[in-house]
## 1
Amino acid sequence: MADTLNLAADPVELTAALVDVPSVSGDEAELADLVERSLRAQTALEVVRLGNCVLARTNLGRPKRVVLAGHLDTVPVNDNLPSRLDGDLLHGLGTCDMKGGDAVMLSLAATIEDPVHDLTFVFYDCEEVEAVRNGLNRIERELPEWLKADLAIVCEPSNAIIEAGCQGTMRIEVRAKGVRAHTARGWMGVNAIHAIGDALRRLETYEPRHVDIDGCVYREGLQAVKVEGGVAGNVVPDAAVLTVNHRFAPDRSPEQAEQHLREVFAGYEVVVTDFSAGALPGLHTEAAQELVRAAGGTPVAKLGWTDVARFAALGVPAVNFGPGDPLLAHTQQEHVPVNDVRRCREVLWRFLSRG
Amino acid sequence: MADTLNLAADPVELTAALVDVPSVSGDEAELADLVERSLRAQTALEVVRLGNCVLARTNLGRPKRVVLAGHLDTVPVNDNLPSRLDGDLLHGLGTCDMKGGDAVMLSLAATIEDPVHDLTFVFYDCEEVEAVRNGLNRIERELPEWLKADLAIVCEPSNAIIEAGCQGTMRIEVRAKGVRAHTARGWMGVNAIHAIGDALRRLETYEPRHVDIDGCVYREGLQAVKVEGGVAGNVVPDAAVLTVNHRFAPDRSPEQAEQHLREVFAGYEVVVTDFSAGALPGLHTEAAQELVRAAGGTPVAKLGWTDVARFAALGVPAVNFGPGDPLLAHTQQEHVPVNDVRRCREVLWRFLSRG
């Protein structure tokens, strides 16, 4: 691995270099080290390290500040490393979600010499796992002033167009209980795994809502993401746990979403393990309008949950704008069009630089 | 610890003495030493030691031979040692499974002077763990003539009545495949955990057979014993595995049981991970009939799998006959009624002794 990245390089090359340093959630130290070293070596920014988060900013006394945010981690490797350029597409884990966006941020950090607004760059860890581990929590707790801004741009994949708002997400455990017995006399027990069958049936027949807000359509979802149960190979199991992930439109609060899930899984013990509120689309502020003009086109609804909701909760208007198709995130075939990477870098450079 | 056990003592005292020498699977050496020394000191039997197995036999040239078999090991200690006599019940680890049976065997070895049939006593190790470690395997491999007989009596707990044959057991994995996707766009994927729902529905509605063989009713079973699936909290999972344990009556071979399971779970990938054949009751032979008469009452079907199936596979008719309730085996509350121990010793003495 190079001692530092060349931040002035083509952002596509930079994306490939970031992808080729594996950084599955919880294991981002090597990549965070590299990003930190590169920013310190090649920019005049104030740089701070916090765990596996790397923060950098200008302090020019501009009237407004824009924060650009990107997570450094990826979902688990799925036989899709290292990166591979094939024509106009860069393939590999994290190309789309979201090292293309990280590369755009690093390129801007190294090349904008006279920004219109003060700039804060936030690279953080553990976005792809339980919300409680998300690096933004620690920043909010220990360095809250680093998240203050007039606009936040979260460079998650959005096909290089502005996506507004985001859906909420909630994880619950649906728990079944039974009574242990030897499987040679199974009728003496109650099988908790069998009891999960009905919950799976409800998932199969569930009809998710399609919710229209300000012309943006949010499409909800309800998916089992884990199932676990069993004592020994000859024992009727007395416990089984099904973990379900619900994605809900921003017209519902987390409390309303929880109530809905308790109705869907009535009869089971339901425990909420993790949730994040959604964010309503919020494009009315001046800085957001400037960005919309720089990007051109019409903003659309964001379906996935992203950290725009965290910024929205802090009172910072926030949008998604990044290279790559979010539908490819977390798939083995994940890739990013090189033109998306270059376009995002150009749009943001035009928006942020006096030129 | 005494240098030798008093084999001529009340078999209940002998049971307590055996229980008070812990012998969890893999750790039977001390107890095997004690049994070997006691047999050599107090009987005229030919005694052979093989690992932690102790073998003893008469060589009187009788026309028939009966083998009595008992394992020396127990499941792990569960705060249930030493033994404790409370009224008519002897409590403690191994009282039921199966040092009560071992004590009956040792008592017979020391007190039958003129047996009707030649006798072989087999005390063996590692019955409570993976089949591959079972001491009977080593005996079958290295001293196969020691397992030859006209009837085998496995002194596992059977409430002091004859339990004939045993059911087979088979474990399979029922595997479902899907396609990964981000849960924010679940409709792009195929959820493998949801796909397990139909297999659970088949388990819920499964009607196990009750099979009557020679007047013994075998009650089959089909139970999920493990379920596993999930990639990450925000990923539609592409794989889920349900492990199912089938207990089948001895009218079916393992091949027939597998065929049945493939029909039950048609549409799924089914992989057999582990099986043991059952054993037919085999009560038609002369020696078995003599034992049935000595015991009185009506033999019943053995539902759990025991080593009678190993003898059956060697062509030796085999039954379970031992003190204690098999439902208590492997429980912390394990105990044996002292009357069961004495009754088993008396029935077998009547069956085996001319005296």
## 2
Amino acid sequence: MRCRVCREKAAIRIRRHNAAFCREHLIEHLRRQVARAIEDYQMFAGSERLLLGVSGGKDSLALWDILTDLGYRVDGVYLHLGIGDYSSRSKACSEEFARRRGLELGIVDLPEDYGFSVPDAARATQRSPCSACGLSKRYILNEAAVCGGYDVLVMGHNLDDEAATLFGNVVNWNIEYLARQRPVLPATGNGFVRKVKPLIRVAERETAAYAVLRGIEYEVEECPMVAGNTLNRIKEWLTTVEQDSPGLKQQFLFGFLERAADGFEAVAEADLRACEHCGRPTTAEVCAFCRLRRRSVEAPVGERGDG
Amino acid sequence: MRCRVCREKAAIRIRRHNAAFCREHLIEHLRRQVARAIEDYQMFAGSERLLLGVSGGKDSLALWDILTDLGYRVDGVYLHLGIGDYSSRSKACSEEFARRRGLELGIVDLPEDYGFSVPDAARATQRSPCSACGLSKRYILNEAAVCGGYDVLVMGHNLDDEAATLFGNVVNWNIEYLARQRPVLPATGNGFVRKVKPLIRVAERETAAYAVLRGIEYEVEECPMVAGNTLNRIKEWLTTVEQDSPGLKQQFLFGFLERAADGFEAVAEADLRACEHCGRPTTAEVCAFCRLRRRSVEAPVGERGDG
């Protein structure tokens, strides 16, 4: 197996592109894929202020590395979720990466700053931890971007993440979510900054290979709360299917974006108003995050939630 | 495991309905599912002339049985595809079923009446046999309905068939096919009769169980040309996924029909004109079936096709 570019011994084969790459040209290939996504979807300009959601995993650190190499100035924000050793290790990876490269990393601490952890929220609401975590991340990372005066919140979701989310939304035909599944969500003008996903053309194993080849130390363990998570199961199914049909995930996701997504956008946007508690846009009196926070902070430790 | 209705020993468990049924009540259950599909989608009235596409397999024979029991008068049409023993056996099953119940069965013979078999067509076009077969079936069964003065063409596609087709169309985001994936396709007024699928609420293993319990002799073997067929592979994947999440296929299909299908219908219908050869509606000068026929009949036996 030889590198498509230089014919040297390849480090990785990418079957959906019917190509293999050596170390150097894999790095170049991923940089080009990210640059192309930014350009294709007009994600941002170099003059804009960019904030990256950093988890300490391979995707966000690889993306930070690539964007920096492409010449963008990107600050990071790490959200400490209060998930024991997993959070400590991923925070340390994020801080170490930023320190070595002289990059700015802000830290938000869910237990300290908001009074509850993801395990607290899962217990209090009896919802899956992933649901409480996703809701908190969306809210707090946007909050960090708004308060820091950033133009754009950059997220590290990759092709596998987006294909799995799309699949989940298609299986349920969740029209509202389908309407919002885009590589770029424009700023709303009333509290949400623009949100972009530059890794949309890059698969999970490619960011992992990139991180390894670049010597990036990332948190390798999966979050311990993710077991049985629906999105993870969908990812496993799709990966099995992809083995039979290389390119299927990409075809599924980009076919949607090119031919179907506009149709779902026709769905009327719900009327948004200001959350009575925090002032951010919501369809309810109090936004979902403030409700989650209230229940998670109020629930005494060990309580199984109020249903 | 006890029957949901009479608490007798159950013959089959249907996990997506969280129910089990004895012989008698499974039969009643399937009859009710078919009656409900006919009513929900206003498929046809008892006064209309109905023609059923009969393959000799479990689905079409079970459906013929159920519709007859529900009091509908339904004639059948069997299309002989020229696939060796498989075609001979499935024809014999169809004829035997009709004879025993005193039902009308017309026979169309692809090799005799049209001059080519499905294997001929696959060879001549170098397309998959399933593609040539599907195209021929759609054309010829409609032709039989039109020429026989029928109002409705009834097809035996079940829940698994429709979910797999939908999945295939979604993975490719084939908007035109998605717009036409309905349990009822209205007559076009220029050559297509109404086409309906009353088994849409019934899974494959349920029609199999029904056929066995009713003593219906059907062709048990799968078509020998189907190996590697994409739709079959999708069916297998979906069945694996369904085992983890009972009801997923039904939720996927009916979620589409209830919440998404209308959006795809907005896609402009292509301009249809009469095929220069047979006069049926087509978007091209000569319709796809007449092109397939011309190539399949012209190609000498053994020729690998003209690409």
